[in-house]
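Two entries, shown back to back:
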Amino acid sequence: MLGDALRGAGFNVTMERDGESALKAFEQRPFDVVVLDVLLPLLNGYEVARRIKSTPAGAQVPVLMISGIYKSRLQAQEAVERHGAAAFVEKPFKLGALFEKLRDVLKDRYPSPPPPPTPVPESPRGDPLADPRARAEAAQVDSALAPAAAARGDFSEAPFAEVLASLHRQGATGALLLRRDKVKKIIFLRQGVPVSVKSNRLGECLGRVMVREGMLSEADCGASLERMKASGRQQGTVLIEMGVISPHNLRYALDLQLRLKLMDVFSWFSGEWQFNPALQAPPDTVRLELSPAAIIHEGVRRGFDEARLRARLGDVSDRVVWPTEDPLFAGQDMGLGEEELQLLAKMDGSRTVADLRALALLPPLDTDRLLYALLASQMVELRTERRERPAEPEAAEVSSVEAVTQEIPQGADDDEEPLELKDEVVEDEDGAQRERLLGTLAAMRRMDFFELLGVRSDAPPDEVRRAHRELVREYHLDKFVGSSSAEVQKLAAAIQELLGKARDALVDAAARAEYRSQLGSGGVRHEVGEAVGRMLQAESTFRRGQQLLAAGDVAGARVLFEEAVQLQPEEGEFVAYLGWARFQQSPDVAEEAQISRAALERAVALSPTLEKAHLFLGYVLKALGRAEEATRAFERALECNPSSGDALKELSILSWAHRLQKGKDKRGGL
């Protein structure tokens, strides 16, 4: 929020996520002023301010500190006198107060508001800030539209929101090909969830997005393109090397670019689409991590005005809004705000659309936008009948998620978890997800259905449905489709299946009576199938292999990794570690290195967002003398994990070697 406001006032803004990243950014380029929160991860604001002020470059740079926690008169005085802050601002504050402080410290250097942005031309060609990678993507998209398709249509008949919702309900996997005039896009879906977007609009390339968002100047973007052409490296990595952006801000820009490509389609009033199940998503390191419902909600907010909503909804004022009976759609995470959640809670089958509008929890247009997004996502439905308004649930009843998470053996409280463990979990997000879900599933198997849903033995059906809906939302399949491995998705599906069995057993009176009789005979353990049993065994074997590898027993680790891969051949992390162990066992044998390379390339295809797969592949390619391919692998590792010091180190070494070789070639030519 502050970044957007400061850019609007004319500042060039660099934003960082923690104290250490802020210091690194400050070392790499000059800044005129620093706005610093006291409460930061890794290094607090006081320490960051002290280190900045202790350097020659930072001694004269004004630091404004802000805090909503440490805001006593004594703490404000300490920030100024002890830590060198030019001013201290308490949260909450009005933006005008912050701007006034900035004017005080910057004086005549305070910037003027920027001119209105120049509109990006609609033509998909000719953007000077487009990098070669974007041009290659544009060419691929141009050639991808084929006449054969499983389904086709036009957005003048059904908007993109409804097309996307329909594909989600079908669980479609493949490519949605879109065309409007000269603009073409491909949205790749896996089980109905968008995971990647390609576009032939050069105005949506990374450089253009970063310039438009104020993350990059046109001069820096142009300079990075020149370096990129000379080195053959990706633009993002070149920008990091130039000190213009940090790895975390690169990841933010890549995420933003993906969302902007997708959200643009919601504004299309016309254009054709076709769905091709034969085209599969490429192994991109950055994937959309939004549920279809969240995408539809955001897209409708951006692309639908009053006239467009009226055309799709019609006159529904006297229709009653009911929650859907299908838990798969009811449990979707839509990313709603507080007022939207309050309005959703009122859509309980007791109020008409007119009643909901009259509540005025949202402006009328936003109320209709939310209603249309919910209808398209099949989270609610319209009926003519109305039910008696139910009593509000007691607070104690909504605690079913805690009943499961408290049973997970490794679910330690975040406040007690050591910092090193948190860093490791961030580095291996997919493995952490798999381990967490395995722990959850193991805990669930030990519970009876009442414990599992967190309800009383005499709970009414509505309470059972409510508890089930909360848990389904927590472990909804949409959360694990985009960037998670196949094994993580299987575990989420197994949890969903078990929750569904619990709901069916308790929501019906006869089924509940039968289940109680089973409990009386001691049958409380719930079988989850042979496949999950293999997962549990594979996970245990893999973890033991990691321990042996860390201890230096490469041969023993390889045996265990082979066993884990035999049990779960589609788990990318297992395949990656097997390929790496094989290479480490015989690093000087060219044939073994090639076999390891093939295994790691397969691991990348299975788990494109797994940092270790790209990192291991880079090491092997480097050993094989394939420096350019190794550079691309390390760049992808950095995209997966911006905190990857190993990837940054290797990229620096390869960049230095490339410059050295160019110097030798030049001298040899002379």
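entry 2 starts here
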Amino acid sequence: MKNPSLQVRYNRRAFKDRLARYFVASGGISVIIAILLIFFYLLYVVIPMFEPAEIRESASYRAPGDGKTLQLGLEEQGTVGVRFTSEGHVIFFKTDSGKIIRDENLHLPASITSVAANLNLVALALENGSVLAIRYKFDLSYPGDVRTLTPVLDYPLGKDPLVLDESGAALSHIDIQLSDDVVGVAATTNDNRLVFARYQREESFISGDISIELESRSEQPFQGEIYAVALTPGLDHFYASAENGRLFDYSLDEDGFDGKKRTYNLEHKITRLKLLLGGSSLLAGMENGEVQQWMSVRKDGGRELVYIRNFVKNRQAVSYIATEQQRKGFAVADNRGNITINYSTSQRTLASINTANTLVDQMAWSPRAQNLIVSDSNNLVHFYKVDNEYPEVSWDVLWEKVWYEGYDEADYIWQSSASTNEFEAKFSLMPLSFGTIKAAFYAMIFAVPIAIFGAMFTAQFMAPRMRQTVKPAIEIMEALPTVILGFLAGLWLAPYVETHLAGIFTLLIILPVGFLLCAWLWGFVPNKSAFEGWEAALLVPVVLLLIWISTALSSPVETLFFNGSLRNYMSNVWGLDYDQRNALVVGLIMGFAVIPTIFSIAEDALFGVPQHLVRGSLALGATRWQTMTSVVLPAASPGIFSAVMMGFGRAVGETMIVLMATGNTPVMDMSIFQGMRTLAANLAVEVPEAEVFSTHYRVLFLAALILFLFTFVFNTLAELIRHRLRQRYSEL
């Protein structure tokens, strides 16, 4: 007969066992769910970057007002447009309906022959050789909590046209650049002359009156017909295209044309020239529908235009190119009404549309590039909505070499911000991934030998009492905050290594020689069995002595072999640059942080080898070292491999040490004397400063996703190996 009290106790224990099992299972499932949630959240932030751009027509109507459209413009949100007409009128209108808001007659002294626009600045070239500059603005107010725009015309060079060509010849093409105090105007005349004028502009702080003073005016004769011109913002180059695909680059100085000219021969007729934002890149639209990007590059001691990339979508002649006001994107229109949206850095054609089905002769972006307004040869206006949030991102930009503005060749570059609005964002993940692997590689070179050999001695050769002290002490080191290690590396270790660089490399020679000498001397010590298992403790003062000797020899070695400075010798003779915070410092300090992880797992694997295997090997006459290399190591090799992978995963995901000890320079150089920037350190530095849901923000989350997958795969693989190891030895 069963004892009721025992049955109750049994039922309680069974209930507790089931409860513990369910609790542990729910905890494990919760961890998996949390990891999956992190993964899917990262995907949620990253995926929108790779969604295609979209352009759709929102409205189409007869151009408001009379005359032909010469130039278009939009306010920031695209609700109000502006139209400059051949009749000398400036018409502001609603973009959704074409309803006229304001019609301003400029009362020009002569008819308009050409128009150029630079953001919201419009230059009107007149038939009498003069130029009128007009800037349109929209004053924003909220009467009655209603957003109200008031169109305003401003005359930054005065209301009277400036005489550009003193002979009074009609201007056929024109371009203008305006800074705070300097104005440059470049034009061509109908009698085939190139004219450039430079003006000094001053505005009174009291009255607001503007005074314009001519600094220089020069001209250059030209043979043949000119199709398009462009003037750089620095007023140092004047580009002109002519027949037979010729592109001319005239050099300018403060006095105008300086006599230097370069000629480039393209395969097709150039129908349009347009400078990208910032003026460093020139877009050349051609009659075969191709748009080529040319860039000023240092070459042979000077600068010249170099072909960078091209964009081909249609086979019709390019009729207009409109560049974005805040990014390196642009829209291209052709003679058949095809409109394509492109981005220069990523070399992508993002979207296309054709609702005009005829020649498109004018286009303009809104400042945020969310709207595009177009005028065609039938005097119709088409208004488009554009969804194009992340044009900077492509596979090439993220993982391949890209030729950026200001660089002499294509390269892997990470530079997410700058002090200028014309900055071209550089989002290559290659330097960050390379830096992550580099930091982990040098840390593992330092950590793996020390940790593995230390684990071998601790598990199989060390005295039990000493092992009970050493193993917990090393494992406690793993709890040391990495920010403390990074702080020590940046403020103490990096300067110390730089000062004693020769001593560091001398130590690599002295240390093994010193160990061999100690081993030879150990053979003469009587009664060595009394110290069996405590040899490591006896080596501690030897190691400290050898380190002191290496440090003391640092200065004499530099004086004797390296002219007093190893760092200068490497730079002058070997061509190796030395950064104070470099891979050597990271390898030392991050290796120190990784050693406890590798040591602990490897020591457990080595110590867990069944003793009957060890005793059997010793009984067959093998030495303890032969037993270690032939029996223990093969049996523990899965665990050792797991330890190395866990340490590598820890090194890859390390943040604070590399943040404080590397210099954070995103360069791809395997030199041990150069710094790097890792994925983790880059996230710590830039995520707090990134604009939420911007391209920069989402690319950083992509970097986090890559780091997550990298560490997850390595750690998971290591855990699988450990699990198989446990299963294997549980059957012995």
